[in-house]
Amino acid sequence: MYTSQWVDYSGGSFFGNGEDGPTRTLLSFLISAVAGNYSDLVCFVPVVTLDVQKLMKHFLKVAEELELIGFKVLVVITDNHKVNVKLFSELSKGNLKPRIWHPFASHRLFLLFDPVHLMKNFFNNFQRKR
Predict the structure, then answer these.
(1) Which of 8, 37, 51, 104 is 20 to 30 A from 91 in CA distance terms?
(2) What is the pTM of this model?
């Protein structure tokens, strides 16, 4: 999620300033139930530039905390941005796989690249082929 790039001072704290300066992007973590209507925003992380080390650090923290408070993380879905692909590759120990062992639980974790977007692309490609 993109934001305006500025720093604001309010109530004795600075907002909009990350490790590398004024932020312009919010890294978002969301959860959704596999069956049912439950969905929730877990956290926003303000970043200037995103690399795989930062993404890995925040992903592992979110995955660990969700398991600790009682959620069972089964699937991780991202778009196919190069940093997300690198994250999945790192989680798969260098060889990109569709599922891995969860780093903080005794079950498998499925890694998906935005299946809704993929289905839309398949549909659009078949529509053009007449």
Answers:
(1) 37
(2) 0.77
